[in-house]
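User: Show me an example of a complex going from sequences to structure tokens.

Assistant: Sure. Here are the input components:
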Amino acid sequence: MAVYLFKRLLGLLPTLLIVAMLVFGFVHLLPGDPARLAAGVDADAETVELVRRDLGLDRPLPQQFVRFFGHALQGDFGRSIRTKRPVSAEIADRFGPTLGLTVAAMAWSVALGLVLGIVSAVWRNRWPDRVGMTLAVSGISFPSFALGMVLMQIFSVQLGWLPTVGADSWRHYILPSLTLGAAVAAVMARFTRSSFIDTLKEDYVRTARAKGLGEPVVVIKHGLRNALIPVVTMMGLQFGYLLGGSILVEVVFNWPGMGRLLVDAVEMRDYPVIQALVLLFSLEFIVINLVVDLLYAVINPTIRFK
Amino acid sequence: MDTTTSTLVANAVAPAAVRTPVAEFWRKFKRQHVAMVAGGFVVALLLLAVFAPWLVPFDAENFFDYDALNAAPSARHWFGVDSLGRDIFSRILMGSRVSLAAGLLSVMVGAAIGTLLGLLAGYYEGWWDRIVMRLSDVLFAFPGILLAIGIVAILGNGMVNVIVAVAVFSVPAFARLVRGNVLSLKHQTYIEAVRSIGAPDSVIMLRHLLPGTISSVVVYLTMRIGTSIITAAGLSFLGLGAQPPTPEWGAMLNAARADMFNAPHVALFPSLAIFVTVLAFNLLGDGLRDALDPKLEN
């Protein structure tokens, strides 16, 4: 297991390096002079030169990259052009709300998705399956930002039960996490169903039935455990999806998180913030994928020893 | 034994029993009633989008009904009026052109590039394969919408750049899919036979390997259209895609946020338009998968 972990970590390094290079190159790919952007629109030539030297933009590119990478490793991404605060402080403020929202969405959507998937598989092609799969295909077809607006319209504006925007109390979490999790619940339900149907066709399930076990025992004890293996992978991938999906949901609900920060930064062309957030988002995504693979190796030994 | 064999031979010879792959597909697809309806709906939508300029009751961008700002649906304005006095029904119809074109074009470009890269990677393997797969890994290291936002931030706002962005993030998925198929197909006997009679690599790839992988590409492509429409609309919703006054569903939703309290219908109809369109493509994709995937045979 330790060898496997080491191999996987080593395999990540090239990907991480290329991602860091892309994020670094991002500023140089943009139209216009980064020093002028950082200095502001009405800065004179002298100030722009000062900023250029200050940011190290006058040095050769490889040297700049090493500097950028070294600073990034220490969590230093420079200052936001918009607020002049350190980028790390900006992000630190926004990390908690996004994490909370993502975890809340993940919790309910995985639970519901699993139940829907299992029920649909057990009553395959009967009405529980039809209801479950209709819900699921609707869930993947309703874009989060549209769903968020419809939910807000019904529960906040018309009925007045829940707050519209902000993240001050647990009641603020209900609508955004419902919106964010809907697609994940749908994907999990569809995936669990097909995994479960495959498992229920296996010989050992037939054996379990043949030796006279009750259907609940067959489904839960023999089916569930084995059907869950691919489901775990899917769950991890969906966590990555949630990170991206939170961008749109945070805009709809004016959520003070990293997604909202990113959209504001793109609007204001606040490049240091965009750089740091893109790097952070993809780092999280890579780490989640790694954790999923490790979890998978724990459940399924054949992968570990390949 | 003898009777079975002769029946088999008779069946194979009888013209009624000749099953081309297309006929076989159609026979299975016809049984997917939901997908058939969804397919019909998609065709109707495409026709509506093509003929929208002749069908709209009002000019989607330049007609302003100042006496009916934010008016609810009525006989004159089927889907109501937005805050600037424009007819929402006309804007949704014209918007279907933008949203459908963005969804379809971006997936097709992404699928074409991805398929080509996957074919080459799977066929030649070696360093070329490693480069393509490493690049896919890197693109996969960004959650989809984030990659699209990054690309639009570099290229600038606008629908064309949104299509480029969505196409880029579709490429690696197709490249992986086709590569996997090619890796398993290329060791089959018929490929060996083609190679032994001296066919050039390009012929082997395009005439013999590509057809073997095209059905899974078509299924995946159909399933991806929905995602692409959602992503493109999402980017416009964030203000990065279609710019006002262009009627685009995501951009319309974004504009509707200001009127949520006094005119809920302004947000409702673009939401429904995206939902129904994406649902139709997803149901069609599910049906195609069930009809084309041999693993799902009962």
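The lines above are the inputs; the final block is the predicted structure for all two components together. DSSP finds eleven helices and no strands in chain B.
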